[in-house]
Design brief:
138 residues; alpha+beta; Immunoglobulin-like; 5-stranded antiparallel beta sheet; 4-stranded mixed beta sheet; 9 strands; elongated
Length: 138
């Protein structure tokens, strides 16, 4: 009987440790918000990029600390292949911090225009139309 109780107590302790370790992982769902007339492409931790259309938002999930890359492409005429061949008008990389349920983009004391970081919520990224080197749309 004692062996059975020890075994049960050991299983319960192991389950408690596993449960608390799982809850210590980060997990924040935030947004990349595009307030421009142009296309924003974002990627996280060197992964595949995702497109945020003009005046739309796209969710981003922080599971661990890492990096997010943002690029803004001016709207331009398409070439014969149906693609706009151009370099980004703006490109930047930001460190991200994710600990438990606290996630944010590390500003590191520098200017971030045209991107607003951690607004309206910690971890949100907003691309605004200010100081973009894009010609006005007609």
């Amino acid at each position: 009987m004692r062996g059975c109780m020890r075994h049960t107590a050991g299983l319960a302790a192991g389950l408690l440790v596993a449960t608390s370790a799982g809850s210590a992982e980060a997990g924040c769902l935030r947004q990349v918000i595009n307030r421009t007339d142009h296309v924003v492409v974002a990627s996280q931790d060197g992964g595949p990029g995702f497109t945020v259309r003009p005046h739309h938002a796209h969710p981003i999930r922080y599971l661990r600390s890492g990096q997010v890359d943002i690029a803004v492409y001016c709207r331009a005429p398409l070439d014969e292949s149906g693609l706009a061949q151009q370099q980004p008008a703006f490109r930047a990389s930001y460190a991200t911090v994710a600990v438990l349920d606290r996630c944010y983009v590390d500003i590191d004391g520098g200017g971030t225009q045209p991107v607003a970081l951690n607004n309206p919520r910690q971890g949100d990224i907003v691309v605004a139309p200010y100081e973009l080197a894009c010609p006005p749309l007609r």
